[in-house]
Amino acid sequence: MRSVPVFCYHNVSDVDGHAPALFEAHLQAIQKAGYRTIGARDLLEYVAGRRSLAGPSCVLTFDDGHLSNWLVAAPLLRKYGLTGVFFALTDFTVPGPARTFASAPALAAMPESFCRALSGDPSQFMNESELKALVQDFGMEVQAHGRRHQGAFRSLRPQGGIGGRGHWAAHGIYPAPAPGLPCFDVGSALVYDGFWPTTDARGPLFRLRPEAERRAFCRAEFQENLARLKALNGGGPQLFCWPWGQFDGVSEEELRASGFAGAFSLERGPNVPGTDPFRLKRIGVGKKKSPAWIRARLAMYGNSLTARVFFKFFRKRPEPRTVLLATDSTKLSGGSRQMINNAQALADMGLNVLAAVPPDSVLRQALERAGARVLPWDGFRRVWDTARFFRAAWREQNLDVVHAFHNKAYKPAILARLLGARYKLFLNRGVIFKPNALAGLWAALSHGYLCNSLACARVLRRHGVLKSRLSVVYNSFLDQGPEPGEVRLRKKRGVRVIYVGNEAPAKGLDVFLEVLTLLEGAGRAKDMEFVVCGARETKGLTEDLRPGALGRLRLTGPIAHDQVMEELARADILVLSSRQESLPNVLLEGFRAGLPVAATAVGGIPELIRHGVNGLLCASEDALALAEAVAALARDPLLRVRMGRINQRLVRELLDNRTKGANLVRVYAGERLCAPLAVEDLAASVPLPEDGEAGCPDRPEQ
Fold first, then answer.
1. Closest by alpha carbon to 641, among 495, 432, 422?
2. For the domain bounded by 495-684, which CATH number is listed?
3. DSSP code of 71?
4. CATH assignment of 322-429?
5. Fold adopted by 6-148+218-309
6. Residue range 574-598, pLDDT digits in tens
7. Cα–Cα distance for residue pair 424/402, rounded to 1 Å
């Protein structure tokens, strides 16, 4: 059976697109192959079975309505007695006389033409008179391509910035496009809900558009486009060309309901009697394709059998919309706080966030305040029951992603996938110790581990987890209080050194107390106060302290989190004397308070602290080196100010909840993130405090 190949061109000029000489060679190749050209309405009649073809036939289509189609393509088609179908963007179709090369602006490349049009200058696109002349004087067809080729950020995968290597569609996505604004992977706004930017004092915030809003957008787009095109092309059956060749069930349903008779995509396959008129196939023609390539495609797609062999279907990559966070934990641990942060970040971005937690978990209210809908579940110890719970949630809640925290959620979430649940599964990992012997298997049966540090990922890598199954999304600080002021030195008191953590050996409280002992014994603790927050059982650690050291120590015991933040706000130096860490939350909390940090270089700590830049690093258990670091920071107030300002910027710009939410969405969408934080780059942009700066004393003698 005869099939009708449909070729897709865009602009034809020496500036961009197909060079006129090459395009003319394509037309010659079509004629020599014995093909005639027909219009889109002729093709519609053929696939509907209402007409036959006199011989081998093809359709030449031209997307976007670029001015070169009028000045170059249409005259060449008329020269060879061929016809074309031109798809117009009605927002860029303005009144005006038909132009010649003498009266038209110099032709611009397609990306630049779009940037200009989206900024209010549509002169690179055909106007009303030119489109009408194509129909009335040239015998061509003009059909619909939408209003303005509206794009959407279909993912948050970075793709340069406006004014650089970013996609031209960003000019129509940002309400106020400006150089330097970030650009991301682009798709059609008719098809992708998209992450749409709003801007506040902290910069762009991207929210996933509700599907209902996209449906309304499609309806308005199609209705307005249809009405305008009927006035330009004289009426008759109206066909639509999908921008970027993309479509989905929602947009197609709205297109059919709007009154269009058919649609072209960039799928490949046969166009034969019985073909769905809303699934008309086309062949994209690259700007360097030769006449021989055209002849080969005529042969391949002019026959229904070979056209079925050389097929291509469009597969939409949907944005993750509904995420289930799951944990069996009933404690408000560091990992649990990050789960709450995740819920808040994802909800702020417009995703549907669910949380599976035990009914009596202290996390429940916090998750609900963060915007998650809680699905209470108390059966995490029953693997099969929990697997069935996950599978039912997938069906009933349309889950796209399950993000499992803590071990008792891992296995049933994996088992549910084996039982047919088709969600993406990510396993959270925020500790540094040796993993379960089956960690590699769990990673293979899921979409991998989400770690909170590169050090954590390296541990998993050494224990059988493939590199391709590891991503790093750093912890975030969820700032719910007033923005702290710029870091300045306090007057009329000494230096307060703070430790936050429990008394477990891994946290190194004994090392911190040894630092106090060393500084006191050397007479270097003058005007210093040492504070320990959070430790419960300290008697065995403090009973050997000398009276002088003990007099400089204040123990708060376990206190509420907001009280910890108050203690950090009153401190001058944060000390992390840990023996083992992945990425402690207190480090971010200290950053937010504007504190420089003296820390042991264990786990993920060196990923946030660069020695001499925003803190000082020492070897694990080296109390003497840690004491020297504390003393160095204590005697240099301007260094403390600079480091504190860098750390506040870090937590505000790289470790904030907004950044974490975007990174989670990127991983959920299929990216693998394992990049270190750009601490040095950020630090370079923080100016040095000057001697005598307001709020800072002059630099003391060393």
1. 495
2. 3.40.50.2000
3. I
4. 3.40.50.2000
5. TIM Barrel (3.20.20)
6. 999 999 999 999 999 999 999 999 9
7. 6
